[in-house]
Amino acid sequence: MDVDKKTLERMIEGNLKWDELKPIISGRKDQNRFDKIMEILQEKVKFDEKILLPLHEHLYIVAKEGQRIVKCDCGYEFGDYKINWKTKCRIRVRDSIDSIEELYPKFMGSDPKWEELREYFCPKCFTLLDVEAVPPGYPTIFNFLPDIDTFYEKWLGRNPPDKE
Ligand SMILES: [Zn+2]
Fold it and tell me: Do residues 122 and 60 make contact, with C-beta atoms less than 8 angstroms apart?
């Protein structure tokens, strides 16, 4: 299914109705879908570094001076993509009844003895990037470590843009 760039842009922004979206996500992908998506993302961000892969909402792995780093769409650089970007975040831990009841009605939230909510914010733009609901003391979760080279070589049949 060949989807035009305008429609993909609206999809990324979450502006497609279900009857427009469903055939796109369930149908066969056009050959250059990845390139079209990457082109749209590159135009959306305010920085010039080449995006290698989108990593998470607002976050991208980009090529910069021979390195692969995680960058927020606001421009903040989290450093090496192999190091958990969450370690650079501003973090709010909701581990008390009061802090949990800011979000949930009384008795509808979790018991802080058993679970805490950790909110990870970008230190520059303060966008909420991720939330973990974990037992107290549980290690910070490393969401995703992509194998960039294998992805490009095996799935796209070419070198990643920083190794062309
Ligand atoms: Zn940011």
Answer: no
How many angstroms does the Cα of residue 73 sit away from the middle of ligand 1? Answer: 6
Q: What is the pLDDT along the chain (164 residues), one digit of tens a residue?
A: 789 999 999 999 999 999 999 999 999 988 899 999 999 999 999 999 999 999 999 999 999 999 999 999 999 999 999 999 999 999 999 999 999 999 999 989 989 999 999 999 999 999 999 999 999 999 999 999 999 999 999 999 999 999 98
pTM of the model: 0.90
DSSP state of 86: G
Q: How far is the CA of 100 from the centre of ligand 1 (A)?
A: 25
